[in-house]
Amino acid sequence: MPVIVIDPGHGGQEVGAVHGQHREKVFNLIIADKTARFLNANYDAAVHLTRIGDITMGLNERAIYANQLQARLFVSLHVNAGGGTGFESYIYTHAGSTTQQYREIIHDWLAGFYKERGIVDRGKKKANFAVLRKTAMSAVLLENLFIDQETDLSWLLNNDFLSALGTAIGQGVARALQLDDKKPGGGSVPVRVPVTTQPDRARQFLQAQNPAAPDFINIYVEMGQLYRIRWDAVFAQSCKETLYWKFGGSVKPEQNNFGGLGTFDGKQRASFKTPREGIEAQFQHWHAYCHGGELPPGRPELDPRRRAVLAAGWGGTVNFVEDLGGKWAPSPDYGVSIVRDFMARFVDEVMPATGPGSGPTPPPQEPAPSPQLPGPTPPPQEPVQPPPHSVPEWNPAAEIQRLREAGLIVDDHPPDANVTWGEFATVINRLRDKYNLKG
Ligand SMILES: [Zn+2]
């Protein structure tokens, strides 16, 4: 699957061009988000953003990130300033023929989009910009309109226009790379995009289920930006794994293990010194799935199971929350459950009753009740009762999942892994304890 890196220019203290109260960095991130979501929804590609939040990031760091991912294309998004109007594109001064060809296609497609709106095409340019020079793959930089020109600014403040622009950039990229259409049945909630969920929504969602829960939501928000993974999904998974941080299962609260992470040998649950370390380890586990091998610069390795994910060949294979099924846990529905049973209750974009955000507010409407929606206690997951006198389906992964949920085993064992006598005896003894069998 081709890797595409979208680079929203500037960020954090580095605001880019300024005009009145407007900051270039904000527009760049919105356009990048819309481009990424369009590509995620329509094409078979792994789309990464150099930043998914408002954080400061050096030019070197952006190039290194794309180089580590071995991306096929790097698209840097900017807004112009300093006298002028319209759109222009850049490639490196000494760009090769593939890059030139990609730029031709993307530029011409976008010029058509702009022309329909009476916006000027300023041409195909070359420059010795750091992100173009230091990226090892083809790289194109787009200057979308001028922040300090009133007509251009009015376009930039028009959300429908920004959506259309994100789509047009995505279409240009898809044409340049000849991307395949997305296969039907894939996931719907991309993992590496900016999050619009308000932290208070997550807080209220958690408090309603567990009034005694500590407030670590800000750690999730911070780690999400650092690891470039949407924090609302990681937090939702934590609610699933720990029963809303009540830790009713095999993990004790003092272990600070918010993702239900196993140890390197998979035989017991990991412990972390502080909640912050436990949450960061959870993000590192996601990071292995969503990004692959290299942790963000300077981060200590905390997740004891990260290397197991990479060794299994799963590094960077998760593009949607739903893709976690069969990987983080054996159940193919694991990621679907995070979306359906948890995110759908506090994340607007996932909620079934929410429209695309235009028009009047729809009347309050209860989402169709789903038998899988958990209340304060989680329902047993899919305890399919076979009809009388029939032989039940043979489903090893689901059986392992049932043992996990019963607390008899504690990790995501592959169905065909060998079992030791020690593990076998442990399960038997846990059963004996559970049913008070003293014999
Ligand atoms: Zn800029």
Describe the structure.
The structure is a single chain. The strands form 2 sheets. The chain has a 6-stranded mixed sheet with strand order 4-1-5-8-6-7, with helices on both faces. The protein is elongated, with a radius of gyration of 24 Å. It is an alpha/beta fold and 439 residues long. The termini are far apart. It has 14 helices and 8 strands. The protein has 3 domains: 3-177, 3-Layer(aba) Sandwich (Aminopeptidase), CATH 3.40.630; 199-350, Orthogonal Bundle (Lysozyme); 396-434, no CATH class. It has helices spanning 24-42, 59-69, 97-116, 130-134, 150-156, 159-177, 199-209, 217-227, 231-242, 275-290, 306-311, 334-342, 396-405, 421-434, and strands at 3-8, 18-19, 22-23, 46-49, 73-80, 87-92, 121-127, 138-146. It is 39% helix and 10% strand. Bound molecules: zinc ion. Zinc ion (ZN) binds at residues 9-10, 16-17, 24, 78.
